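Incident log, structure service

09:12 report received: a user says their structure output differs between two submissions of the same chain.
09:20 pulled the input from the user's history:
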Amino acid sequence: MTSPPNTIRRGNSRFYVEPVTGSKVPSVTSVVGMLPKPAIAFWRGKKVAECAVEDIGVVVDFVTRGNPTAAIDHLKKAPDRSSGDAARIGTDVHDLCARLAMGEELGNVHPELAGFIQQYERFISDFEPGFLEVEATAWSETHGYAGTLDWIGTIDSEVVICDIKTGASGAWPEVALQLCAYANADHLIDAGGERRPLPSIEAAAVLSLRPDRYDLYPVRLGDDVLDAYLALLRVFKWDAETSKTVLGKTPVDPINTGDVKT
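09:34 re-ran on a clean worker, output below:
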């Protein structure tokens, strides 16, 4: 495992910074995030409704004390509080899985994470993957994106790129976009700017990891999947860059209608 290049956040998106040239490209997950997700909108609404019922005393207290803004903030931030806990667990589990893949002895694992790690150890015992790259950053000069993959390894002599998902909802089809982007990068890169070849990927999979079970699903890669990812990349660039250049800064003066400039 090597340290990834520096990343920065701009708004809700993450960008990778090339260590030598300083060039900035969007992260693969930020690009995939441009995909419409109606299920998430429904989930967020449900979390707000649940909070309104479960924390009714808190909300009423804010309102009766003349602070309705605090009540509104408490409700609208309910989904973020819930997803923040899940994200923290996911990050911790990924870190421990990476250490296991590198052959580290973990010692005592927090009870909140122990079930996930036991299942990952089961997966390793069952499939005996030979890890080639762990938490490596893939960089595409050709298309302008980068991302840190979970691992590349051999299973039954086949080179497989795999992504680990720890969410209760399991694996979703968009993981194919993520893995296809990594598999079609130009090279791997570390924090010092050193580049090395990306192994030749023969297959892809997603490992859905939960405290009481694991499921390994094959993922199809292909030109059609890459085309869909690149379409999202164009949408991302529209949203982050082009959309900010298309409207004029001032309205047109009716006296000088020939002076229509952006």
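09:41 both user submissions now match this output. Likely a transient worker issue. Closing.
09:42 reviewer note: The domain at 7-243 is CATH 3.40.1350.10 (Trna Endonuclease; Chain: A, domain 1). The chain has eight helices and twelve strands.
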